[in-house]
Design brief:
- The complex is a heterodimer of chains A (114) and B (114).
- Chain A is an all-beta fold and 114 residues long.
- Chain A has no helices and 11 strands.
- Chain A is globular.
- Chain B is built from no helices and 12 strands.
- In chain B, strand 5 and strand 6 form a beta hairpin.
- The chains are: A mainly beta (114), B mainly beta (114).
């Protein structure tokens, strides 16, 4: 497709469960970002990939969060042992990879942990 | 460290009047600055950016922003507001020397009334 695609758009899970969120970036974009947006807040940086490698994972809140991008395109954000505080909209963005470039965002995956 | 402050949670303006949405930033080096807009149930959309050169940058939908290094500000402006401009606006900063992650402000809700 033409834009960044994220699935699922909505996910409801129970505390303690495992969740995977998928991001399909714009074709040809080497850089991929994950952000988290809580209600009333701006997007909070989680992790940045350049190609297949995580170039900056300083925003991941703890070791329950992990992300992969094995072939340099699609990325999966994985959350283990979910907690109610993980409830948020998880945003994926991609860019051409220069640090002057703008990010193109998907519509997000809304995660609700009951 | 880098951060963005958007001091106003909400800005109200009448249609046809000029609008300003404020943003100040803090970076250790020189900044790249961005504005994004978020419409209800839509992904973040890029509006404009300052990389270098002219302090006044023009972007989408008639918006512009002025980079002021001495005041560390990057206020978003539009000469004549439209009702359709009502949305959530986010300012973001990237330190050009230290990384690729964009740091976002908490957002300002713009309401343009007829």
């Amino acid at each position: 497709g033409a834009g960044v695609s994220q699935t699922p758009s909505n996910k409801v899970t129970e505390k303690g469960k495992y969740v995977e969120l998928r991001c399909d970036p714009i074709s040809g974009h080497t850089a991929l970002y994950w952000y988290r947006q809580s209600l009333g807040q701006g997007p909070e940086f989680l992790i940045y990939f350049q190609g297949t490698g995580a170039a900056d994972d300083s925003g991941l809140p703890n070791d329950r969060f992990f992300a992969v991008r094995p072939e340099g395109s699609v990325s999966t954000l994985k959350i283990q042992r979910t907690e109610r505080g993980d409830s948020a909209v998880y945003l994926c963005a991609s860019s051409l990879g220069q640090n002057t470039g703008e990010l193109f965002f998907g519509e997000g995956s809304r995660l609700t942990v009951l | 460290a880098q951060s963005v402050a958007q001091p106003e949670d909400q800005v109200n303006v009448a249609e046809g009047n000029p609008l300003t949405v404020k943003c100040t930033y803090s970076v250790s080096g020189n900044p790249y600055l961005f504005w994004y807009v978020q419409y209800p149930n839509r992904g973040l959309q890029f509006l404009l950016k300052y990389i270098t050169g002219d302090n006044l940058v023009k972007g989408s939908y008639g918006f512009e922003a002025e980079f002021n290094k001495s005041q560390t500000s990057f206020h978003l402006k539009k000469p004549s507001a439209l009702v359709s401009d009502s949305a959530l606006y986010f300012c973001a900063v990237r330190d050009r020397e230290s990384g690729y992650a964009l740091n976002f402000g908490k957002g300002t809700s713009l309401l343009v009334t007829p």
